[in-house]
Amino acid sequence: MTPAQDPFSSPGSFGLAPVAGENPEILILGSFPSQLSLRHTRYYGNPKNHFWQIMEALSIIDPALPYPERIGQLAAHHIALWDVVASCSRPGSADARITRPVFNDIAGFAGDHPTLRLIALNGSTAARFYSRIAGGIAVPSVVLPSTSPANARLSLKEKILRWSVITKDE
After folding, report:
1. CA-CA 20 to 30 A from 90: which of 34, 102, 125, 153?
2. Is 49 a catalytic residue?
Protein backbone atom coordinates (compact mmCIF):
# COMPACT_ATOMS: atom_id res chain seq x y z
CA MET A 1 0.00 0.00 0.00
CA THR A 2 1.45 3.36 -0.96
CA PRO A 3 1.08 6.40 1.31
CA ALA A 4 -1.47 7.84 -1.13
CA GLN A 5 -3.61 4.70 -0.67
CA ASP A 6 -3.23 4.59 3.10
CA PRO A 7 -6.16 6.53 4.64
CA PHE A 8 -4.27 6.96 7.90
CA SER A 9 -1.36 8.87 6.36
CA SER A 10 -3.31 10.94 3.89
CA PRO A 11 -4.44 14.52 4.46
CA GLY A 12 -7.57 14.79 6.50
CA SER A 13 -6.99 11.93 8.97
CA PHE A 14 -9.51 11.85 11.79
CA GLY A 15 -8.69 10.87 15.37
CA LEU A 16 -10.51 8.73 17.92
CA ALA A 17 -13.59 9.53 19.96
CA PRO A 18 -13.09 10.32 23.64
CA VAL A 19 -13.16 7.43 26.08
CA ALA A 20 -14.73 8.36 29.41
CA GLY A 21 -16.74 6.65 32.08
CA GLU A 22 -19.03 8.36 34.55
CA ASN A 23 -17.58 11.26 36.50
CA PRO A 24 -14.04 11.41 35.08
CA GLU A 25 -11.59 13.32 37.26
CA ILE A 26 -8.51 13.12 35.02
CA LEU A 27 -8.51 13.79 31.28
CA ILE A 28 -5.37 12.56 29.56
CA LEU A 29 -4.88 14.37 26.27
CA GLY A 30 -2.48 13.16 23.62
CA SER A 31 -1.71 15.11 20.48
CA PHE A 32 -3.08 12.83 17.72
CA PRO A 33 -3.09 9.01 17.43
CA SER A 34 -0.28 7.16 15.70
CA GLN A 35 -0.97 5.24 12.52
CA LEU A 36 -1.06 2.00 14.53
CA SER A 37 -3.57 3.45 16.98
CA LEU A 38 -5.76 4.64 14.13
CA ARG A 39 -5.58 1.28 12.36
CA HIS A 40 -6.57 -0.56 15.53
CA THR A 41 -8.94 2.21 16.72
CA ARG A 42 -7.27 2.04 20.12
CA TYR A 43 -5.55 4.67 22.19
CA TYR A 44 -1.83 3.99 22.52
CA GLY A 45 -2.02 1.11 20.08
CA ASN A 46 1.71 1.04 19.35
CA PRO A 47 3.11 -1.72 21.60
CA LYS A 48 6.33 0.30 21.99
CA ASN A 49 4.43 3.22 23.53
CA HIS A 50 4.96 3.33 27.30
CA PHE A 51 1.43 4.48 28.17
CA TRP A 52 0.02 1.11 29.24
CA GLN A 53 3.23 0.18 31.10
CA ILE A 54 3.01 3.45 33.03
CA MET A 55 -0.64 2.81 33.89
CA GLU A 56 0.34 -0.66 35.13
CA ALA A 57 3.19 0.72 37.26
CA LEU A 58 0.76 3.21 38.81
CA SER A 59 -1.55 0.27 39.70
CA ILE A 60 -4.30 1.57 37.45
CA ILE A 61 -4.61 -1.22 34.87
CA ASP A 62 -3.32 -4.63 33.90
CA PRO A 63 -1.89 -4.18 30.39
CA ALA A 64 -2.35 -7.88 29.63
CA LEU A 65 -6.11 -7.44 29.64
CA PRO A 66 -7.97 -6.96 26.36
CA TYR A 67 -8.30 -3.32 25.31
CA PRO A 68 -11.97 -2.90 26.31
CA GLU A 69 -11.16 -4.11 29.83
CA ARG A 70 -8.14 -1.78 30.11
CA ILE A 71 -10.41 1.11 29.12
CA GLY A 72 -12.90 -0.08 31.73
CA GLN A 73 -10.21 -0.05 34.40
CA LEU A 74 -9.22 3.50 33.44
CA ALA A 75 -12.86 4.55 33.72
CA ALA A 76 -13.10 2.86 37.13
CA HIS A 77 -10.17 5.07 38.19
CA HIS A 78 -12.04 8.10 36.79
CA ILE A 79 -9.56 8.58 33.93
CA ALA A 80 -10.67 9.66 30.46
CA LEU A 81 -8.63 9.63 27.23
CA TRP A 82 -8.78 11.91 24.23
CA ASP A 83 -6.53 13.94 21.95
CA VAL A 84 -6.19 17.68 21.45
CA VAL A 85 -6.29 17.30 17.67
CA ALA A 86 -9.51 15.98 16.09
CA SER A 87 -8.18 15.84 12.54
CA CYS A 88 -5.10 16.90 10.65
CA SER A 89 -2.77 16.19 7.79
CA ARG A 90 0.21 14.09 8.82
CA PRO A 91 2.29 11.72 6.76
CA GLY A 92 3.47 9.03 9.16
CA SER A 93 3.09 9.20 12.94
CA ALA A 94 5.52 11.93 13.98
CA ASP A 95 3.88 14.81 15.84
CA ALA A 96 6.30 17.23 14.18
CA ARG A 97 4.63 16.47 10.84
CA ILE A 98 1.11 17.49 11.92
CA THR A 99 -0.26 20.26 9.73
CA ARG A 100 -3.69 21.86 9.44
CA PRO A 101 -4.86 20.69 12.89
CA VAL A 102 -8.52 20.93 13.76
CA PHE A 103 -8.97 20.81 17.52
CA ASN A 104 -11.37 18.78 19.62
CA ASP A 105 -13.86 20.63 21.83
CA ILE A 106 -11.96 20.17 25.08
CA ALA A 107 -13.82 23.11 26.68
CA GLY A 108 -17.12 21.39 25.86
CA PHE A 109 -15.86 18.12 27.34
CA ALA A 110 -14.79 19.94 30.52
CA GLY A 111 -18.17 21.67 30.71
CA ASP A 112 -19.99 18.35 30.31
CA HIS A 113 -17.82 16.73 33.01
CA PRO A 114 -17.70 19.06 36.04
CA THR A 115 -15.94 16.30 38.02
CA LEU A 116 -12.69 16.95 36.09
CA ARG A 117 -9.93 18.10 38.40
CA LEU A 118 -6.89 17.73 36.14
CA ILE A 119 -6.00 17.69 32.46
CA ALA A 120 -2.81 15.71 31.89
CA LEU A 121 -1.08 16.57 28.62
CA ASN A 122 0.88 13.66 27.17
CA GLY A 123 3.96 15.42 25.82
CA SER A 124 5.03 18.82 24.59
CA THR A 125 3.11 18.69 21.30
CA ALA A 126 -0.17 18.05 23.11
CA ALA A 127 0.72 20.92 25.44
CA ARG A 128 1.56 23.27 22.57
CA PHE A 129 -1.70 22.55 20.77
CA TYR A 130 -3.70 22.68 24.01
CA SER A 131 -2.31 26.13 24.79
CA ARG A 132 -3.99 27.37 21.61
CA ILE A 133 -7.46 26.36 22.86
CA ALA A 134 -7.17 26.38 26.66
CA GLY A 135 -8.65 29.83 27.19
CA GLY A 136 -11.76 29.57 29.33
CA ILE A 137 -11.03 26.04 30.58
CA ALA A 138 -10.94 26.32 34.37
CA VAL A 139 -9.50 22.84 34.96
CA PRO A 140 -5.79 22.88 35.92
CA SER A 141 -3.43 21.16 33.52
CA VAL A 142 -0.02 19.56 33.76
CA VAL A 143 2.46 18.71 31.01
CA LEU A 144 3.84 15.19 31.39
CA PRO A 145 6.61 13.45 29.45
CA SER A 146 5.44 11.89 26.23
CA THR A 147 4.84 8.16 26.45
CA SER A 148 5.77 7.85 22.77
CA PRO A 149 8.61 5.53 21.83
CA ALA A 150 10.15 8.56 20.09
CA ASN A 151 10.71 10.15 23.52
CA ALA A 152 13.91 8.43 24.60
CA ARG A 153 15.22 11.31 26.73
CA LEU A 154 13.71 9.83 29.88
CA SER A 155 13.79 6.27 31.15
CA LEU A 156 10.55 4.41 31.75
CA LYS A 157 11.21 4.71 35.49
CA GLU A 158 11.51 8.51 35.22
CA LYS A 159 8.33 8.70 33.15
CA ILE A 160 6.47 6.64 35.76
CA LEU A 161 7.66 8.97 38.50
CA ARG A 162 6.47 12.06 36.62
CA TRP A 163 3.16 10.47 35.63
CA SER A 164 2.41 9.56 39.27
CA VAL A 165 0.84 13.03 39.60
CA ILE A 166 -2.35 11.57 38.11
CA THR A 167 -2.77 9.25 41.11
CA LYS A 168 -2.61 12.03 43.70
CA ASP A 169 -5.87 12.81 45.50
CA GLU A 170 -7.59 9.70 44.16
Report:
1. 153
2. yes
